[in-house]
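Researcher: Go.
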Amino acid sequence: MRKLFLLIITLFSLNSFSQNQPDPTKELGVWYMYNGSHQISDKFGLKSMAHFRFFEVGDDMQQFIGRLGANYKFNKNINATVGYAFLNTDETFDINAGDFNEHRIYEDLNVKHKIASLNLAHRFRGEQRFFKSTTGNFFRYQLALGHPIDEKWSTYIYNETFLDFKGEAYNQNWFGAGFKYKISDIVKLQAGYQLINVNEIGNFNRIQLGIAITTNHRK
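Model: Structure:
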């Protein structure tokens, strides 16, 4: 009888604990973003990126990601990038349960064109991911549309789908929209919203605040 009583108490405690666990899908998170483009010659350039991604606004960092890639411009509308990314990810929300590091090799093909005043950009990305003694292979496609409002302001909308070559093909989808403000030819600011849908997990709502730096070292 005593063992049965202890078992009931344990099960009740575990159930209460699970019910009290915070749900990250119900939180409004934020991404603080830096993106850089640095032209070295007429054909070659560097792409850099650093993102600090939080489960909540300013609290409980979920992930850091940094990228560095070499870019080659075929013409004014088509370019390609090959690069490396380092990630540090916390899989848990509001619980100090440790994190893990990840290394990625990625390949981008970028194609852009215009329809009237509407700017369209297609990004085809392959990724090889190395984490937890596992190798993953992903394909990502992003379609982005941008439209100028005036000389300083512009608006954008995009959708990106992730496909996994292991298990179920559909992995996740990112949909976002927002505004960009041009401070100068070098500096642009960005503010927007992103909805992330992760297969079998749910939706995540994220605010995006970013700065983009574009430099030209050909001069």
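Model: The longest helix spans residues 2-19.
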